[in-house]
Design brief:
The protein is of the alpha+beta class. It has a domain of 80 residues. The chain has 2 helices and 6 strands; from the N terminus they run E-E-E-H-E-H-E-E. The strands form 2 sheets. Strands 1-2-3-4 form a 4-stranded mixed beta sheet, with no helix packed on it. The mean pLDDT is 75.
């Protein structure tokens, strides 16, 4: 029987899975392991309330939980993690704008000749550069 948790931060894994989570099929919240046949629930993609409700359920098998350096659990509704997400989103938008501006063609287009074949005229209207044929 599972011992009830006081908080999500009390959750400790007995045997970490040796498989790479990126190789498992599924979504950000749940992935399926073909080796053991269980669903792997990503608690860090859930809100704290959802994650604590999930681990209280005795039928939940494998879980994944990311932690900060101080050992506290990272969840989808952690204030500092939302701020980090906003900063990353802002940086991505900035990068996209920089790339878009950087990719725009800023080189001047070559001059086009007028009806008489003149490329450039002086102040008096005399052709000083013309298109050679």
């Amino acid at each position: 029987m599972k011992t009830p948790l006081k908080t999500l931060d009390d959750l400790r894994g007995d045997s970490p899975c040796p498989l790479d989570r990126d190789e498992l099929a599924g979504s950000d919240r749940v992935r399926h392991c073909d080796v053991c046949g269980q669903e792997v629930l990503n608690l860090s993609a859930l809100t704290r309330e959802e994650a604590e409700r999930a681990v209280a359920n005795p039928t939940v098998g494998c879980v994944r939980l990311l932690r900060r350096e101080d050992g506290t659990a990272i969840t989808a509704d952690s204030p500092e993690d939302r701020r980090t997400g906003r900063l990353l989103a802002g940086a991505a938008v900035g990068l996209l704008l920089a790339l878009t501006v950087g990719c725009s063609d800023t080189t001047p287009s070559p001059p086009r000749p007028d009806a008489e074949g003149c490329l450039k005229r002086d102040d008096k209207g005399k052709c000083v550069q013309w298109m050679g044929k």
